Amino acid sequence: MNDYVQEVGALTTRWVKRLSRERFSLLFTLAQPMVFWLIFFGNLFQKTANTDIVQAPSYIAFLAAGVVVMTILNNGLAGGTDLLFDKENGFLERMMSTPISRTSIVISRFLFVMAITSGQVLVILGVAYLYGVHPVTGLGGVAVIILIGLLFGVGLTAISMALAFSVKSHGDFFSMLGFLSLPMIFLSSALVPLSAMPGWMAILAQLNPMTWAIDAVRPLILTGWDAALPKIGIVVIVMAVFDALCLWGAARAFRKTLG
Amino acid sequence: MGLTVGGAVAIEVEHLSKTYEGTVTAVEDVSFQVSTGEVFGLLGPNGAGKTTTLRVLITVLRPSGGTARVLGLDVSEQADAVRRAIGYVPQERAIDRFLTGREHLQLLADLYHIPKNKAAARIDEVLKLVNLEQKADEVARNYSGGMKRKLDIACGLIPNPKVLFMDEPTLGLDVESRLKIWEHIRHLKARGITILLTTNYLDEADQLCDRIAIIDGGRVKAIGAPNALKSGLGGDIVTLTLAVGDLDKVEALTQIIKGQSGVKAVSTKHHVLDIRVASPEATLPAILAAVTARGCRLEFVDYHRPRLDDVFLAHTGRRMKEDV
Fold it and tell me: If you count residue pairs, one on A and one on B, with CB atoms under 8 Å apart, how many are there?
């Protein structure tokens, strides 16, 4: 057990050090593109968006939940990137030749990505706060939002790591991520409510776990606990299934690479 | 595990094979033994199966057939015990350019579960061993190729291994760094560490290794000490290069030389004759006399002791440089 804590601690420390030394990467990670979605996209559609349809005091207030979950999506899907480079330059093999538990590399990555994601969710909520979006459920609601993010993030990070281990080249990895990420965003309730979507898109959006996460986060910001609790119950079930599927699939890829 | 002359067996590979995705055979029926304290080289061109063999031995790749044991431990069945006993020095790219040298070693110390209070002393020790103390706290991005190689070796030494595996230890290094790395390897051997390395440099195999296995096309073609392999060819080599105009006389000349006493074998390619002789002092004058008697014009004469290059040619049918 002590051995396990020691190796996971050391591996996680390495991810943190890497990030802190890549100044630009740190800057872009914190002041990252999702803030621009909130500021530019939110303000751009402020006048065109019909507050009766989005059921929110402003479009930015509506969009906040979507951008929070988009942050979780992008972080999770990019979560395997460093492992991809480790695989390509042989660092992974160096680690695998040491007497560590085969799971600790994966666990260290989960811990790191989850920590970064939580931080970013707080940044997004902070920026939204400046635009007058004050979560009605208060700090308790913010904590639940982060927990929902972690639930969704586990599955996404698992997919990303599995992809990193399986792809033949890193070009494949990034093009597959690009291919996954935009449809996930457009086919969800991030930018418009399902009721305002063309029927076929609304159906696809309901198959998207991201929609369920957003639908639980949004009432926590806009309406209150009474509206949120049933949605939270549903999202826990949806995420349990989603995570189980992702982890099961990823475990197969891990075993193939990590032995 | 058995014993060979010279000590206990450190590494024992028997009928090892590795097939990727059921079709591509990287290694086939490879067997060899490495004695404790030896520097053993796997020599072969790129793609010969050296690295695959090494990866099986360091437990990151499962064999498709055969067995491999390190210090008596099976690499498939007792992988974790093998990992605790060995050190691994991968090729130079496996460095995290954002970490300092010391941070690499700290990470490795934690992965080998060395207690924190002992790790610092161990890290200082290996840094000193490879002369990297001065640069230990600089990020690896600023390291030269030779320094990265030293850091690699330091990482491999962190667990205080009995057996060290090195993948192409001097690939891409300049001559000076190369000689320094050789010095370090000899130093490690003197400390009693068994070393298995892969190389595609003939001189590295020749000068650094106690014994080598020549690998080509996934199979072991020859095993032995470099000098034994060379003398096993049975004689020195005299190469005659005739003028191109005398191409028609080559066949007759070959027959005459073959008949000389002291000539062991003659192989002819175009206007070049490779003649293997027992003793050049006695045979060379006779060969040159035959050339003069036939009225052949010589363009070039070369005489050399057999080189590892000739050993490679004799066992694989081609020169090592040909596929580069």
Answer: 73
